Amino acid sequence: MIDCDVHNSWSTSAVLLPYLDPYFRDFLERGELPGGRDSFPHAHRPWLHPEGYMRTDAIPGDGGAPGSDYDLLCEQLLDRYDVEYAILTGDEAVEASTLANPYLASALARASNDWTLEEWTPRDPRLKASLVVAPQDPPGAAAEIRRLGDHPDVVQVLVSSGSERPYGDPFYHPIWEAAAEVGLPVAAHLGAQGGINANPTGCGPPTFFWEGHALLCETGMGHVASLIAHGVFEKFPNLRFTLIECGVAWLGPILWRLDADYKALRKETPWLKRLPSEYAADHIRLTTQPLEQPKDDAHLRAALEAIDGERTLLFATDYPHWDFDDPELVRIPREWRERVFSENARELYGLPVRRDDRAGAAQPVV
Amino acid sequence: MPGDRIVRDLDGLSVGIFNVHGRFYALHNRCPHRGGALCRGPVTGTALPTSDFEFVYGREGEILRCAWHGWEFDIATGHSLVDPRIRAKTYPVEVADGDVYVVI
Q1: Domains and CATH numbers, chain B
Q2: How far is A308 from chain B (nearest CA, A)?
């Protein structure tokens, strides 16, 4: 199984200090931090999880942050579920996208990437890294992709789903251009709905955590529509874009609507050569967690078939977050499991087959 | 006159006859999308296919947009501009002694 959303985290943002140059180190050592000395500079969303958003059994023995302890990660996830690869998505780092200062945001993203590639991926060949970039700084993000994009443990570029504007906007194209140039897929992970980023939902911020969490798929809808309408996949034909944790079952109906409206108003976007649903089939991927849970399995099956889920879905647990999906319980159609649990991700990320000896020392066989 | 259009009932069949740059074309007044009044829609030009963020207006007078949902059709062929597999019904037109005949 390849888990496409695993949150490796830190207990204190001070772990980034060795990876920051003296100018930006000052922001962490002496500057204002939003949640006390150990916290990471970011603007928080305006609603709060009343229980904390972590699995409480994932707190390590040292009392640190869930996801911060490699041994516990092995015990609770990698070994327990026979994970072939875990795609690390960090935790707070993508929240740098909420900061008004794009230079600070990029510096924090760079430090976080260096920390992940120094402290995590060298420990275990099962761990692969996402390259976090600050979307409010397109030149800085593109430079970071060119700096580390060919690192053997980097498998994708990562931004937050929270953003200043939809990701098809030409403002962001230098980022997608760099990703296409180095051959990395891009992913947007749910989050960063604060600070400079636009309202998380169309009618304004939700009030309660569960209410907001269920609605955050809206940001995914906006990005899909925008990327397609702006012709990002005509401009960068090898680019693929994954939505992480943004939900799954809505995509089919949104594509039906986009196809219908495009057919009437093709003239607005004369650079498109195909229907929105055809671009989506080739370029948009979705991680499964949290997979929608209708009462009737047939309803879920129909929603997944509408987007050719066998080829477009990537399994993810979201460990160690509170809405973790257990791979043994998740309702993926049985005949799709090989593709959704492994092969779709293997193709997207270009990962060789590993022979899993559970000791972290397996050799690639291809 | 070029640009003119009439819609006539021909033996119970509603047909639009269009003069496009001096040539005549006839289409069934029924959109293949949802059965709308195709031939009552505006005759326009459109955005030509381009690459990255270019807007080029062309084909003035050659495009019929359905009165209902605005789908674009090539008056000369009946083909949808989005999907050429979708086609409005066309009829042959003959001109003799200054009169226009639609073969239905």
Answers
A1: 5-102 (2.102.10.10)
A2: 22
